Amino acid sequence: MTSGPTSNEQEAQRQPERRKRSGWLSRSSPLRRFGRWVIFACVALIAVFCGGFLWFANEVTSLRTPDGVKADAIVVLTGGYQRIDQAVGLLRDGAGKRLLISGAHPSVTPNQIRKTTQVSADLFACCVDIGYDALDTIGNANEIIRWIHDHGYRTVLVVTNNYHMLRSLHELRRRDVETDFIPYPVISADLTRKAWFTDPDALRIMLGEYGKMAAAMLRDWAGMYQGSGLRTDANGDAPKGN
Fold first, then answer.
1. Nearest in space to 62 (alpha carbons), one of 139, 165, 208, 170
2. Distance CA 114, CA 117 (A)
3. I want to staple 153 with a disulfide (CB 3.0 to 4.6 A). Which of 49, 72, 102, 234 is the partner?
4. Residues 74 and 187 in one domain
5. Would you tell me how many other CB atoms lie within 10 Å of the CB of residue 180?
6. pTM, whole model, 2 decimals?
7. Residue burial 4-38, b: 16+ Cβ < 10 Å; e: rest
8. 55 and 72, same domain (yes or no)
9. Per residue in 74-95, pLDDT tens?
């Protein structure tokens, strides 16, 4: 009867396989090097994201409304009547000659806006324009700049919430480097507290807006085109003259 391999022979047969496995898992193996680079890249991305968010949060919470500011015109990006009320108040106080309400929903009538903001019929008729074309912040920028160029304004007050201001200015200044855009932030009450980051709603808003801001900057760096953000632009082409 033929006997099987001895224990020494079995051990000898296992040695090459063990050496092969230990080679792949050694400190200098390609697999271990690749794993270290993946971990390093993940840590670096997290550090960049967190550092960028801290910068963004500091910039947003540091925004203040300027005193006694004057400009050729005022623009407000829709997103709540608090913004529009603030912009109408600036128009009433003579901070600008004319006001554009950008991004109004097609179902909202001028009369509804006038009654809600309690602006006089004469002031509304002479000095308030309503833009219905913008669908998003990119559309706001295109709609606003078209209006600015049509009227020949050089200095413009920009009214929107403080957490939305940086991205709004980014989109405006990217398209028009000659106009002086002056931020007039509507201060969110949730962000005036020192410990706003403990409020889940405030933190969610800030993280969401930071993500959009980072995406906008990355898009511009990569040369990507995201359309004009305008209702009437079926082909996604930017308006002429912008």
1. 165
2. 5
3. 72
4. yes
5. 13
6. 0.79
7. eeeeeeeeeeeeeeeeeeeeeeeeeeeeeeeeeee
8. no
9. 999 998 678 999 999 999 999 9
